Amino acid sequence: MPVIPVIGLLIGAFGLLYALYLARWVLRQDPGTDKMRFISNAIATGARAYLFRQYKTLSILLVILAIAIFFAVDMTRRLPGLTALGFVVGALGSMLAGYLGMYVTTRSASRVAQAAASGGMGKALQVSWRAGAVMGLSLASVALLLISGFYLVFSWIAPEEWATPLVALGFGASLVTLFMRVGGGIYTKAADLGADLVGKIEAGIPEDDPRNPGVIADNVGDNVGDVAGMAADVYESYIVTVTAAIFLAYILGLSTAFIEGIILIASLALLATFVGVNLLRTKNVKNPMSSISFAIYSTIAISVALFFAGSFALGLSTTESLAMAATASLGAVVAPLVVKITDYYTSYNYSPVRQIAEQAKISPATVIITGYGVGLISAVPVLFVIIAVLGVSYAIGFFAFQVASFGSYGQYLAGIFGTALASVGLLAIAGIIITADSYGPVSDNANGVVEMAGLPEQVREVTDVLDSIGNTTKATTKGYAIASAALAALVLFIALMFEIMKSMARVLQQPLTSLLADSISKISIINPNVLIGAFIGVMIVYFFTSRTLGAVGRTAMEIVEEIRRQFRERPGILEWKEQPDYARVVDIATRRALGEFLLPGLVVIVVPLVTGFVMGWQALAGLIMGALVSGVPRALLMANAGGAWDNAKKYVELQGLKKTEQHKAAVVGDTVGDPFKDTSGPSLNPLIKVLNTLSVVFAFAIVLANVHMHIVLTGLFPF
Amino acid sequence: MPVIPVIGLLIGAFGLLYALYLARWVLRQDPGTDKMRFISNAIATGARAYLFRQYKTLSILLVILAIAIFFAVDMTRRLPGLTALGFVVGALGSMLAGYLGMYVTTRSASRVAQAAASGGMGKALQVSWRAGAVMGLSLASVALLLISGFYLVFSWIAPEEWATPLVALGFGASLVTLFMRVGGGIYTKAADLGADLVGKIEAGIPEDDPRNPGVIADNVGDNVGDVAGMAADVYESYIVTVTAAIFLAYILGLSTAFIEGIILIASLALLATFVGVNLLRTKNVKNPMSSISFAIYSTIAISVALFFAGSFALGLSTTESLAMAATASLGAVVAPLVVKITDYYTSYNYSPVRQIAEQAKISPATVIITGYGVGLISAVPVLFVIIAVLGVSYAIGFFAFQVASFGSYGQYLAGIFGTALASVGLLAIAGIIITADSYGPVSDNANGVVEMAGLPEQVREVTDVLDSIGNTTKATTKGYAIASAALAALVLFIALMFEIMKSMARVLQQPLTSLLADSISKISIINPNVLIGAFIGVMIVYFFTSRTLGAVGRTAMEIVEEIRRQFRERPGILEWKEQPDYARVVDIATRRALGEFLLPGLVVIVVPLVTGFVMGWQALAGLIMGALVSGVPRALLMANAGGAWDNAKKYVELQGLKKTEQHKAAVVGDTVGDPFKDTSGPSLNPLIKVLNTLSVVFAFAIVLANVHMHIVLTGLFPF
């Protein structure tokens, strides 16, 4: 019985228990008055209803795909069913993660509100942080449990072919996350937009006012979009990054010590997170943000120390141990750097956001132009960090590790393994990052409860502070998620290329070494198949972004109509005499969001498969590269421009300029930024990974088809 | 003496004479009243002043670069000085093209206005069309003259090394164009924004009102941005596309017949253009657009016929002749397709623009979101056309042409030569496209003259119709220019790769064939140098776009301050009692625009050189690819979103909804779209080509440096 995967299982299990303990603690807090409980319940009911309908819609697609995987992929394997099983379990995991996130947040909202009312800032911070920790810890723990468990079982029952089913876990996870991000993102922003447009602008009632028929849908949206979507996103990133590294190690034929080293890094970082979440000071807190930063930095410091200590337990040479610890630490250490960069471009403490606020004095148009410019430029330093991590980790791996096979490309692959470890190091501390992040939506929801339940002003002040910090952690987490997705996707992409070459060697019955050099020259950037593929990849990203942006507008339109109708037909609502029909708005948002999420999602599955099967694996390689090169900067642009616009509006409000022309102009920026940062932007992350994991799962089938069409060596356009 | 280049010279010379004849005709038209002449002169003076200052600023940079080219590139050649000479002449040509465009347009404006007043639609259409033809014909003719002339001279005095100096012509042209696009784009949009913000919104006076101190700067801006910039752009595209094809043929060692075939295609299309410009019906015109379309389609039909007839004069085999004609025709024929696609997404006759106008009922934010979505999706079909042309022309070339050297890659390069011919076919009809395009700014200027000179309403109606059609041709030309730039850049990029391999063979003194396969595998998309380079390319595009967008806002702010100051300190202006100080605003716009255009321009030169010299040519290859894959779709997005917003505003106005909230929201979209479509978007075109031509010029020097650093075979990160 291998020791380290078992340790992974144990730490994962402990993390889950610890999360349950924290959850019980949170649920034992006072849920507040009847009214608060009522509101909280309405939101929870709507969110659950949406999620279940989304899962039902999705499950048809998942069953079809599982059958396709079973017949196209599993039938060629000695032990059929494992890949389909991995896919299904990965997908169920994403659903569970989303549900869990939603469950915790909706239950905690009224309790945080009550804590703010009874215990002030310190108490409210403690309750919301622990609620966040429930999510952070349980996601990381479930992911680690699944990976360790599947690795143990698969490598035991199918020692020759356990790796692809492990990536299928990632495929299932990223696919469901993609749909959750898209559907939830459309729902949340359409509901937000619809409720605001009629409520704030036409009827002149404040945000979160219970008279607004869209108010519950708006709050449900926060939970199905920001919370469930984000929870699934992190779970998916974790699974994909770790399985990508393991898959690469498998392809390279590295010794078990290296594979177990990856699991060890993940386990040790989770261990450090247990300590980190308890280091939050909640007594006499002046600036909650510095408390949170302290907890994060401590977790990273402890992780790095554990990486260096633990790597020597693997029985590798000193150089190898040091290199493993160094590359993983590199990943962990750059996380705060990415966070800082994002913070600079999206927080109102620095000049970029203040410039946007300044432009609001002129017109909404200059707010848009300047904010878009900020989004563009913000991508540059993050991309620089990504290529720096790639370069340094590659160099360390190149000189420290040995890869026996793959001839002259052995050292190259050793370098890429260094990058894989860096990406694992970056993702391994996800537990604490998510704790800080999911604390945001909890505070946001609490804020809504405070408003709707009509609690006193000083309570609102406490939850307002928590909410605004939550906005910062939410924005910076996106930068972190995108950077880690870029590295993970790069690693997975290169693993895919060598998996394809191995498959070719197997199908053509030629030695791998004789195919290697030629195959690598076939994915040269001058190959027309690759070039055409690259443009197809860009087209997917553009199509997808356009569809998701448009869906928000279309859905919001329907919600606007419905809210207007209610105000028109039942004038008593605005005079507090009638209860608005919240459920109808929730229902419309649910129906439309689900109607809109299928087409872009299907394109992401169908186009790469058609490209791979018809044009050949070289075009598919180009497609993935094109999507990566255009998708990562676009995700950064959209997330950061959105964050910057949001905070520029807040900055204008802080100066007491509400209801001025300047504020109006800033609100336009914020509204444009909403679908940028919460619908289209975050969907690009799972999209890039779906393209990769999908391709890995179908790699062998594609090679087989290419051989049958006689294009496996040339591509459709002979090269 | 080779016959065909001489024919090229003769047709080019004839075209120039014909353009002069048309210019004389236009200048002999009645320039209107004293007031009209006065306004026209003020605009011309401002535009000339700006252009000369821009040229002065640029010339310092050009001298430095010419010296750098002389020492870094020319010294290693047998006949030094040719590359630097090509560079300087190409650059001067861009300046001349810009000046010419500006000269014709500013002189014609008052004459078109007068024609509209005296002769109505038919006469006004005729004058503005001929003014456009002066530009279209002279640009294409000068470009053809330069290419034919330089080819004749260079291949005669330096038969071994004439090709790089020819590409240097393209480098000079695209570099100057880049600066003109950026500087002019900042000027025009900042002046427009500044004049509108204070004039229309604050002071409540109409557009083009002579009381607005920014009104002359605004009209100057149209000339230095849209006219001079666009003229330089087309001249540059023509030069780069044709020289790229010739350069590729040279690299491949194709027979002279093929090289001359390229010049023949360009010459024949110009010949067809002479006929086409005369096919415009101006009598009893109901819909001027259909007249214009007829002229364009006729030119294409005649070109295609001439291609098929002419290709048999080259002394090639029947297959080769047919393939040359077919690929060139493919290029010419897809031009209207790209135009149609762009028209669909940017004209108010179709649903995308109408949807934006519809969203204006809700809020400016939904206008922005929907328009941005339209821009994104509009890139998809254009990209599809680009890859279709690439695929089909590659397949034709692959089967029809023979390339003797380059071993197993010979047929591949034959395929790429097919694509090169398609790109030449696409660009060869530029003369007629530009005639239709530059007719836009002429009408726009005429419109301004009509307004400022206070001519009667029915005159305004005529110039309004012409102006709105001008907007359509302007938008569609951008799509055409981007598609042709993408193909030209692809061809040049592949030629560059093989130029580098040839240089390596020469420096390392190894036979090319032994280096070939290995070198091609070195630019595989899995090479970390290539990947890092690709992200650097994206970073350049993002940085560049952000800077140019921001520059518009910064410059506009200063102009706003100045106009406000004039209104404040001299209240007589608004009461028609005092003349505003137009010159000061022109001066501020000039100074700021020039101050802003250096940094982004330098980045485009310095970053690729540093990447190539320090990280190796593999990283440079990745950089160009990354910039191409992210720049082309971004250029389409920005141009088309801008065009769609512009016309959505016009559509709202057409419905008589001026001064409503809906119109206000649509104006916000238009204002955001302005720098999208006229500053940042159009600058990406020359940017992509500067990266390519710059790299070709410095290719040998980079290889030498890489050899010295021992990274020529591996790149900085060993692969």
Automatic annotation (TrEMBL), chains A, B:
Function: Proton pump that utilizes the energy of pyrophosphate hydrolysis as the driving force for proton movement across the membrane. Generates a proton motive force.
Transmembrane segments: 6-27, 55-73, 79-101, 131-156, 162-180, 238-255, 261-280, 292-316, 322-339, 383-401, 413-434, 480-501, 522-544, 602-629, 690-713
Family: Belongs to the H(+)-translocating pyrophosphatase (TC 3.A.10) family. K(+)-insensitive subfamily.
Alphabetized UniProt keyword annotations: Cell membrane, Hydrogen ion transport, Ion transport, Magnesium, Membrane, Translocase, Transmembrane, Transmembrane helix, Transport
Major localisation: membrane
Protein name as catalogued: K(+)-insensitive pyrophosphate-energized proton pump
Residues the UniProt record annotates as site (Determinant of potassium independence): 474
Source organism (scientific name): Thermoproteus uzoniensis (strain 768-20)
Keyword Cell membrane among UniProt keywords: yes
